[in-house]
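To assess whether the prediction recovers the assembly geometry, we first specified each molecular entity separately, as shown.
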Amino acid sequence: MKRYRKIMVLLAFVLGTMLLACIERGIMGSLATQKLAERWSKEEEFAQLACYFTEDAFFDESQILSVEWNLVSAMEEASITSENEHGGRNWMDAYSTQGKLVVGSSRGSMEVRAFGVGGEFFQFHPLMLLDGNYFDATDENEDGVVIDEMVAWQLFGSNNVSGMEVEINGALYPIRGVVRSDVGIFSEAVKEEAPTIYVAYRLLEGEDNSLPIECYEVLVANPVEGFAKDAVTKALGMTEENYELIECSTRFDLLHRFEVLKNFGIRSMTTKNIVFPYWENRARGYEDISALFLVLEMICMIYPVCWLVKKLYGYWKCRKEIKKKLQLFRVKAIFKNSYKKLKNVE
Amino acid sequence: MSERKEKIKSIAIVFLSIMLVLTFFSNTIMNYSLVEVSTQGVYGGSITTKVRGSGTVEAAEVVSIEAASGRKIETINVKTGAEVAEGDILFVLGAGDSDELATAKTAYEQAKDQYEKNILLAGITVAERQVIEAGKFGSLSDRQNALTNSQDDVKKLLVQKKEIESYFTQRDKAEEALDTANAKLEMVEAILKLADNGVDDGESEPTAAEAEQARKDKASAQKTIAAKEKEIKNINYRLGEYAYTYDELNQLIEENSASEGLAGEFIQQIELNAEYEALCELKEKVDELTGTGGDKEIKAPMAGTVAKVNYYAGQTIKEDTVVIEMKPENEAYTMQFAVSQTQSKRIKPGDPAEILYNWGRDEITARVATVQRDPMNRESYIVTCELFGDVGVGDYYTVSIGQQSADYDYVVPTSCIREDSNGKFVLIVEAKSTPLGNRYYARRVDVEIITSDDSQSAIIGAFDGYVYVITTTSKPVEENQQVRLAE
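The predicted structure of the complete assembly is given in tokenized form:
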């Protein structure tokens, strides 16, 4: 009975570890903004990186062209072309900055959180479309906007509003799509549920070109570990004090989770003047949860590991007897076989 | 023992009941776990590509109404946006001599004094002065030709003078040789006379040889005298062929060599003429200012709309100040916006433009006037549109241009086009019949986008007959994954 109880306890701990791992995977898997590299290709290695700038960096669209150029050059040096034989891209980027806009319709107006975006923003942030579609860098008429369901509800009373117009700064802009906010565990803390509108970066930048870019995201082929991060660091060509570069595709790996645990005390400190957007704040919260799960998994695995070590130690101590038993067993088996053969012959 | 058996029996019954329930509801449970998708058929259709742009209206051409002289503004009779007809009074200036008139009078008097002074210093006649004031002293070409001719004449005269001087030298040499020959002849004749007539007391008689020599010398001297006389005669003849004597040539050369004087004379004429013309302009200005001293009302030169009023009544303005800006009637308003290089290829001057979001207002028509490269941005083009109708300066409009429709075989909503490292693709729904009912699977079809508008895209792909593409999903869907159709 005591033996069965031990086995039950052992099984419980192992199952507990597996359950925690599954829950952790399920929670982290909901972070679509960090999973572009996985979605992009199953055969080849890609890395998704996000760079957040300080206010002093004054990073703007003209610098993006320079970064892209440097990145393509670095890829060409490593014999990576911009497009593969299937016509798929081996890199793409997006940028965004946050602000506020007053958006109006015939029913009224409201002040909303606004993201001025460019590049392939919605590839990196595949918000769920309730109506219409996204806009991207290939759009020639850079006047479309994407609103979330809260804005749609307040201004129109419905989600089915793609093709209608909203008024911003006295001008009318067509609505390209309506999205659902990507809510999660820390939604309230990171204000994900604030009414949001996504507009072209130049619309938010305005006439005086004074709004710097806060976030630059890039997806790059990563044939060897660290290639993408090095290439992007070199392409940026800025001092480290002006930005924070994060490799999103590996932030929930086991090693990185240990890294988070290692920096437990200093992780909440910040020495750079960077304001992270809601998706990065949420990802950081999830990193902490992931580290917590790692701790629980490690605790759950203590008993099974100890039991295994003890068992292995016991076997090692009795190795001579085990050897003898095995030899005896072999002899018995040989004898049995011989006896059977003899009987068959008879 | 029996208690244990009961326990085992209960566990088995519970287990089997659970399995039974799960079996009955397995399909339902499975369906709810599947990703829900909405689909749309792939049909042919048309895509209309448009170029949209927004901008603020500006007046195409503005006429500036200025004050001819600096005065105080008595009244301004119009406001911004007012429509005026030709001849309507726009503003009224105060009466009286202006500062400009006094200044102009002073300048005129000073210029007149200076001109008269320069005329007297030049020492020219009345007739010459009249020629200068009339400006009839010949064209620049004529004067240049005169200068050139004068210089050519001098050169010719100098050549002649050199020739004459050379002849003089030759003649002098010939005369000298002649004199020498004459003197020798006299001497040898004297010797011969002595030889023929005998000698007087105290003189020695020349010998026969001396006499013979004397005869030879005489012949030689006579010959020389004849040659030199002939030479001198030729030289005199040639000298006589020249049009001028030596002294006359010198005089002519002296006269024509004063070409600096000729150029200086021409320059003086020009300067005096310029001074005279400036004087006349000042006079005209004085006359004008004096003439308009009482002219206070400034009228509209043409029908149009007042675009801007820069001053108000009571303000004092300077001469040539723009008081009012007017937009002439029937002139188009313009609006500019930037487009990309690709968009610029779809637009050409003369294309009609549709004004968007213009409900409830009078009709406004627009057309493309110019498409020019943006000097500040090589990749951008500036489109200028002309607007006609009830338009005001400062209005903000959005226009749509270049609506070109084309039909395509496969047109799908843009939202259903996805992309990964293998390129763009759509997910279509394939149905498979099973004993438990139809099951639906997502299948990938690689596509290429031909063109797109705000909501739809025309694509090329390997579609077999009628297919349904997945437009939206409740969760991410992968290829070959089973899905559930939205109800």
